[in-house]
Amino acid sequence: MPIARYAITALLAVVAITGVLLLVRPFIFSWSAARDDANYPVVSVSVADGGPRLVELVLNDQHGLPGEVPEGEHARMMVVVAPDPRGGYTAVAAWSSTHDCPVTLADDRLADCAGDTWIYAGIPISAAEPLVAFPITERNGAVIADFTRPMDPGT
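The chain above was modelled as a monomer; its predicted structure follows.
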């Protein structure tokens, strides 16, 4: 008889815990920030502090950005994330729209296939056009970019 009582009590506890989880789970997701291309965690702050780096991303939607490669409803693209000497971080598309080719990391600058160069923030050194930059925020130890609002670097 006591074994049946324990079994029924354990079953009721499992049902109660499952019910609480089913009620609480939607609230957890409603409190968290949206995970879309306007709120995209690119790298951790500790990685970004290590210096400029190329980061490959898969965006949720296609935005027609330079260097964007459509993959179904998503898009793959490369960005350069670097510490900003004025504080914070920068993120720019790793694509030269002047020569329609990828941008790579050189010793102290970005360079494209034709030798045009930019500082890490996307401002031209010896290029005709700036690179496309993205608004950046820092939150919870991550560098967050907004890929829905491209901008000119330095703004």
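The domain at 40-145 is CATH 2.102.10.10 (Rieske Iron-sulfur Protein).
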